[in-house]
Amino acid sequence: MADLPHIRITTDGACKGNPGPGGWAAILQWNGTEKLLTGAERQTTNNRMEMTAALKALEAMKRPAEIILVTDSKYLLEGITKWIHGWKRNGWRNASREPVKNADLWQALDAATRPHSIQWQWVKGHSGDPMNERADALANQAIASMLESREG
Length: 152
What we know:
The chain is an alpha/beta fold.
C-alpha cells in the first residue's frame, strides 16, 4: 500500500455528564493540509463520542489511505483492534452472551475501516499532547455551541 496517501487523524470525544450532552472532534492531516470535523449530540455517552469521532473521520475519507489514527480512548482502541473479532464471531454478543454495547457504532466502524490500512495509536488524555489537547478543546467547543444554540 505504498502508493496510498498517508493521513494522520487525531480524535477525541467529550461528555458533560455521562450520559449527557456530548461532542466529538477529528483532526485530519496530510501533505501540509488539515481538515477539522466536529459534532455534538444532546444525550449520549463519552464512549459513543470517542467512537463517533473516529467513525466520522473515516467516513470523510474519499479513497483508501494509510492512516495513523490517534485516540485517548482505550475503549475505542481495544474494541476495534481486539474485542471486535470475538463480538463478530459471537453475533455481536460479549463474553457474557449479552448484546455488545454500542453495537451500531462498532458495526459502522468495522465497515469504515475496511478500505484503509490503519495503525491505531493510544495517547494518554490530558497529558499535554498538543493534538490531543486540541481535539479535546474542539469536542468541548462542539458541546458548547450546541448548548448555546438550544438556549438562543
